[in-house]
Amino acid sequence: MTPRPVRLSKTVQSELQRITGDRVVVAVVFVVRLADVGAYADLGLHVEKGRIEAGGPVLLPPSSGVYARRNLDGWNEKRTDLPKELRHVSTWAPSWNSGSYHLVTREIEAYPVERHPARLLTISTTVLEPLADAALVRFRVDQPLLRNDLAFGADLRFNLRLLNEAVGEAHVFDADLSDEEFARMQHVDWELLPPGSTDRVLAHIFSRGSIDPETLKVAQERLNVLDQLGHDGFIVGKGRFARYFGARFGDRLVVLENLEYGNALYMFKENWEQLTQLSRTELIKRRDGSVQRIPHLPGWQSAVRKLVRSL
Q1: What digits encode the pLDDT tens for the residues 75-89?
Q2: Which partner for 60 in 64, 71, 183, 293 could form a disulfide, CB atoms 3.0-4.6 Å apart?
Q3: What is the pTM of this model?
Q4: Which of 270, 263, 262, 225 minimizes the C-alpha distance to 246?
């Protein structure tokens, strides 16, 4: 049966355009906090001796959702994009005044039904980088896809929906990336929010996990400091920077905060969209002055105010 045409979203098309290789894989990389590990127990993520550890490849249980069930059992699809076909339908009807039944067959027009077998795709979880009370984790569907395959679009869409169902996010990567390259890569889709939107920023930050009262207090305090600097809007990110939020000053200057207590504030004086793709280690090592790192030590608020006003 001819495959149904698949329309991929603009976001997915954009991700595919950035990949030069012929093989792609569906995956996502983001920070998981110790307090949120339980949400990914079905994927083998667990805590061992105070550290986040990953297990082997797993099949999602059917309770995960529609695509997890389709992955395990297969499914039938009514092909409304194809012409209807004649079909014979038979039913048993009672015979008049005899107490018996006889078979009645009639011919109808109906859309063809395509049977999709179970795919039995596994999802692998890998800890790419241990962090303080957290870890940078990659979740990946274990099926590299060839871009010139006839079923590429349908397979890609299925894998994206399967992983999104499992962890709430999914992207397309080059299938031949190493763990180290995955650790350096991230999808930081910054969203700009207007000044005064502290409630929306907090809702975004904690959308992936539970709210710890102490963490909430720290986030509110740091948001208030930023909100008093006369900025042009808050920004919030995803991927490795899912726990980062900040403020933008003009077109070039951006200040980013992190919720991990004891971490530093980062001030990007130019090219902030490119620089935020770097890991925290790479940011610390930079010596060109384009990134200013301000540890959260006593008096950090005053230091931030002076730097913002001077720039």
Answers
A1: 999 988 889 999 898
A2: 64
A3: 0.62
A4: 225
